[in-house]
Protein: Response regulator
Organism: Inhella crocodyli
Amino acid sequence: MSKTILVVDDSASFRTVVKLALQKAGYTVVEAGDGKDALGKLTGAKVNLIVCDVNMPNMDGLAFLKEVKTMAAYKFTPVIMLTTESQESKKAEGRAAGAKAWITKPFQPSQLVDAVNRLCV
C-alpha cells in the first residue's frame, strides 16, 4: 500500500512540482493551499508525512505545525518544512515546534524524495 504525503503550500505550481516528484517515487499525495485548508484534510485518515511551506496566508506553516502536534492522530507524523526561509532562528522555531527536516527553496526534487524516504514510516 502506498504511503500518503500531505503537501501544504500556497503556490499551486509549487505543489504540482512536489506532487509529481513524490508520485514518481510511489507516494500518494494530498494537497492543501494553507494551514487551515490542511487542518481540514486531517480528519483521522492515515498521513505518513507532511511537507509544509512556512509563509502562507490564513495559517502559516509554523502555526500549522504546532496545531498538528496537538492532534493525537498526527502527533508523531514527521513534518518536513520546505520553504524560502533560511534563517537559523526560523529553523530553530521549526525544530522546537516539531519539524523533522528543513529544506530551503529552490530545492532539488531528489533531495526532497530522499528526505521523505528517510522519514516516512
Remarks:
- The domain at 4-119 is CATH 3.40.50.2300 (Rossmann fold).
- The radius of gyration is 13 Å.
- The mean pLDDT is 96.
- The helical segments are 12-24, 35-41, 61-68, 88-97, 109-119.
